[in-house]
Design goal:
Layout: H1 2-29, H2 34-39, H3 45-55, H4 61-73, H5 87-122, H6 127-141, H7 144-158, H8 174-199, H9 203-210, H10 215-226, H11 228-245, H12 247-252, H13 258-267, H14 271-299, H15 301-307
Helix pairs in contact: 1-14, 5-6, 5-8, 5-11, 6-8, 7-8, 8-11, 11-14, 13-14, 14-15
Subcellular location: Cell membrane
Membrane topology: Multi-pass membrane protein
Family: Belongs to the binding-protein-dependent transport system permease family.
Length: about 300
């Protein structure tokens, strides 16, 4: 198992290199001049050239990228172009908010999706199944920013139950977590239903019924546990997606997380900050996938045997 974990961590290195290379060159291909944006419209060409030289932006791109990698190997994500502060410090100040939002949204998704998916599979081809799948289809199809705006209009402006923006109290996270978790809830519920429908048709389920076991025991102890692998996969992917895909939610609700910071950095052409945010999200997504693979072994003994 330790060898497998070490191998997966080593696989992250080429992934990070590819991501940093792609993002670095995309940021430099974007229109606009960073030094000109920092100095403002009244800056002279001489002032812009002097600032570019000071920031090292007048060097070849490959040289700039190599210098960035050297700093990255020493744990230095660079300095923000716009604020002049350490990228690492700014990201670490925002990252707990993103993790908090992602975890609450994941709990909301799982608590709603698993019962919905199991109930739809057990009550297959009934009105319960149809209603649950319609709800799931709406969740998958609904744009997250539209849902966020609708929640603000109803619960903040009309009912005045939750704040519109910010992260001042526990109430501030309710609407962002619902808007972020609802779409992911739909995907998890659909996958849970599909895996459960396939599992409850297996021969060992009919054998369990023949032995006289209760329906609750058969569904939860045998069918659900053996059909969890696809659901675990989707949950892991959705959590990783929420970590990196909370950009719209954080922007609409002005949530002080990494996603909102990344949007602001893209608008300001702050390449070191964008690179730092992308690297952090890539690492988080890779570790979430690793945890999902390890959960396979905890759920299915056959997977543990394969690891050995």
């Amino acid at each position: 198992m330790a060898r497998y974990i070490a191998k997966r961590i080593l696989y992250m290195i080429p992934v990070l290199l590819g991501v940093t290379l792609l993002v670095f060159f995309i940021m430099h291909l974007a229109p606009g001049n960073v030094a000109g944006m920092i100095l403002g419209e009244n800056a002279t060409p001489e002032q812009i050239a002097a600032l570019e030289h000071e920031m090292g932006l007048d060097r070849p791109l490959l040289v700039q990228y190599f210098d960035y990698l050297v700093g990255l190997l020493h744990g230095d994500l660079g300095t923000s172009y716009t604020t002049g502060d350490s990228v690492t410090n700014e990201i670490m100040a925002r990252f707990p908010y993103t993790v908090q939002l992602t975890l609450v949204a994941a709990v909301v998704s799982i608590l709603l999706a698993l019962p919905l998916g199991i109930l739809a599979a057990v009550k297959q081809n009934t009105w319960v199944d149809n209603v649950s799948m319609v709800v799931s289809l709406i969740g998958v199809s609904m744009p997250i920013f539209w849902l966020a705006v609708m929640l603000i209009l109803l619960f903040s402006l009309k009912l005045n139950l939750f704040p519109v923006y910010g992260a001042d109290s526990w109430k501030s996270i309710v609407l962002p977590a619902i808007s972020l978790g609802f779409m992911n809830m739909a995907s998890i519920a659909r996958t849970t239903r599909s895996s459960m429908v396939e599992t409850i048709r297996q021969d060992y389920i009919r054998t369990a019924y023949a032995k006289g076991l209760s329906r609750k025991t058969i569904i939860m102890r045998h069918a659900f546990r053996n059909g969890m692998l696809p659901t675990i996969t989707v949950i892991g992917l959705e959590i990783g997606q929420m970590l990196g895909g909370s950009v719209l939610t954080e922007t609409v609700f002005a949530w002080p997380g990494v996603g909102r910071l990344m949007i602001q950095s893209v608008e300001g052409r702050d390449t070191p900050m964008v690179m730092g945010c992308i690297i952090l999200m890539t690492i988080c997504f890779s570790f979430v996938n690793l945890i999902v693979d390890l959960l396979y072994g905890a759920v299915d003994p056959r997977v543990r045997t394969m690891y050995r």
